[in-house]
Amino acid sequence: VIPKTIRHAMNLAILLGQRYLWIDRLCICQDDQESKATDIDMMGDVYNSAIFIIIAAN
């Protein structure tokens, strides 16, 4: 089951004509702390390369 917040982000991306959606909780390995730390260090690059950013406020 896809959480409602992610479904809303997916629908918004489609409405804005985007094919791809990067969701940190899904795209960053949460089980490997070393990998997670490396990925978190790269998040600035991800955000800087983004066409737009969606932040869930709840």
From TrEMBL:
Name the domain of life this protein comes from: Eukaryota
Q: Where is the Heterokaryon incompatibility domain positioned along the sequence?
A: 2-57
- Protein name per its UniProtKB record: Heterokaryon incompatibility domain-containing protein
Native organism taxonomy: Eukaryota, Fungi, Dikarya, Ascomycota, Pezizomycotina
